[in-house]
Amino acid sequence: MAGTAAWGEQPTGGKRTGGETARDRPAERARHWRYDDLPGVDLLRARYIRKTFVRHTHEHFVIAAIADGVEVFHHHGSDVSVGAGALALVNPDTAHTGRAGVPEGWRYGAVYPSPEVVAAIAAETTGIRGTPGFVSPVLDDLHTARLVHRVLRAADEGNALAADTVLRVAVTRLLQLNGGPLPQRRIRTAGAVIAARARAVLEERMARPPSLEQLATDLGTSPFALLRAFRETYGMPPHTWLTDARVRRARLLLDAGRPPAEAAVAVGFTDQPHLNRHFARIVGVPPGAYQREHRTDGRRERKNVQDRH
User: Fold this and answer.
1) H-assigned helices in the chain
2) Distances from the Cα of 300 to the Cαs of 9, 24, 72, 253, 297, in angstroms?
């Protein structure tokens, strides 16, 4: 298990200088977990060098504090860079990618609060009307970046009071500095209606989806018209969206205790290696490591409760 001392999570606020060789560079590693006393929040600490995240979405918010290096991610049609001491901020269901912006990669800590968690904090601490979200995908604010790392450290140490308190302070500060109401997605055009119907079919037939031509025929349109409408509505083509959705559903199955091999077949991947490849390119860790960490934290928390009694 990665401890805070080993990870050295505090951001430096600056970039590394030259002189580092490939042999000197630390290996890629990541830990994705949950802390039972932070319900509705996923946690990640990682160092990536060659890692590339394919286009994907999250049901939760992404609040990623860069400790060192540079991350580049595609967001709303353009690439944005975020360096040490700054934060990458992505709203739920927003398509984005991720990759290293410098040869040494990037090291970061991230919290993924659910929309419900963020909405509750916003209602209590801000005057934002409607659904709260982030206005800009990058915020250069070293203080808040350090707060994010403090949340992760408190969760590592089992300090529920600190983890919950600092998370609320961090989210409040982010909303005050970079918050606003999210635009409501309204299905107005015929293309958007077709895209929504296609998405519903893919959700229902995830394990055995139709071809693009068959899906278009069933919906009374052409393959290219469907492809264009789906991309405009959801930020990615149907096959990319389907892979993303399969990984999301696989996470739910892994959380419920299903073995990775069974989860792979259940969501429509041909086998576990197929799931492993896509899962790691979206979540950041392999499904086996994801499941071990999530189970471990639940067992640790139950043991802590028993010890207190």
Assistant:
1) 4-7, 115-125, 142-157, 160-178, 190-204, 212-218, 223-234, 238-255, 260-267, 272-282, 287-308
2) 23, 35, 35, 21, 5
Choosing among 2.60.120.280, 3.40.50.2000, 2.30.29.30, 3.10.180.10, the CATH entry for 7-181 is: 2.60.120.280
- Check for a shared fold between 7-181 and 190-292: no
Interval 167-214: pLDDT, tens: 999 999 999 999 999 977 666 688 899 999 999 999 999 999 999 999
| Long-range residue pairs from 295-302, CB within 8 A, at least 24 positions apart, any chain | 295/257, 296/1, 296/33, 297/33, 297/34, 297/35, 297/36, 298/34, 298/36, 300/158, 301/35, 301/36, 301/37, 301/158
Q: Are 86 and 139 in contact (CB under 8 A)?
A: yes
Burial tier of 185 (Cβ tally within 10 Å: 0-12, 13-18, 19+): exposed
Q: What confidence tens digit (pLDDT) does each residue in 26-45 have?
A: 689 999 999 999 999 999 99
**Domain positions in the chain:** 7-181, 190-292
Residues, the chain: 309
The domain defined by 190-292 folds into Arc Repressor Mutant, subunit A (1.10.10)
